[in-house]
Amino acid sequence: MNRAEHTLILEELGLMPLWVRPELLDSPQEVVRHQPARAAAETAPTKPQRDAQAHAPLKPAEPARPLAPAARQRAAAQVNTAPEPIDAVAAAQQTAQAAERLAAIARMDWDQLQAAAASCTACELCKQRNKPVFGTGPREADWLVVGEAPGADEDRQGEPFVGQSGQLLDAMLASVGRTRQSNVYILNTVKCRPPQNRNPTPEEMAQCAPFLHRQLELVRPKVVLALGRFAAQTLLGQSANISGLRGQLHDYRGTPVVVSYHPAYLLRNLPEKAKSWQDLLLAQQATASQQAGGVPASAPLPQSEQGDAPPV
Ligand code: SF4
Fold this sequence. Notes:
Strands 2-1-3-5-4 form a 5-stranded mixed β-sheet, sandwiched between helices. Helices cover 47% and strands 7% of the residues.
């Protein structure tokens, strides 16, 4: 291929203009052929310029400058946030196993459920538990009290609400004629104690929730008393704080739910006991309405029922 043909091909490929040392050109006219018409006239270097360009020493490439710390962090973050490859088969297997576990728990009777909780390894909390805290009270109770997570005493004894919080809860229940021995079933949102009494994580609550839901189905209480944020969150699916949820009836699959403060909170905030007393009265009223044939969810406590001073 001669130079003219080579040049034409480069022009077709859009790779022109091409700077060529003049002494390599076949003729002066060829210089013109290598320039686009007007640009050639305006931008073509003069002979001295061309000579200077042709013989100029090559500039050494600049060494790569190290990244500033912030830029390094950004680059690392980009690397770290690269999406993991998805193992679709493993994900589908996990989903199927979770669905099987849910369906199996939903069919269990009391003994099967208790045995399943005792051997459960569905979340990290199984690793450090001493005893799973399943629940206590008559299985046909008309009140069901849901707490948060077992503490050290509960973990040792395998029973919910022992220690100071348990004593206060027992006194509160006694003030409305109830006991865990006669007509209240008590359980926690998670069965195993979180290390150092930390809050249970959403993942741990989700793994343990099927046990709680099945216990609710088996007890079939007239009223549920949810004590503390995690109990309310698990039953109602709401993350609002307690003060925003208490004072009205909520609904859990047709059963009225009263939200109130956890006894451990009341021990640190004694003035709030008056509100807790109001919540107990609301639960009493809901129970009476259930016995009489039903109570609408989200009903506020009538003013006439509200007592100011708790007896405990
Ligand atoms: S907390 Fe609940 S889900 Fe987690 S290991 Fe214990 S029983 Fe299983």
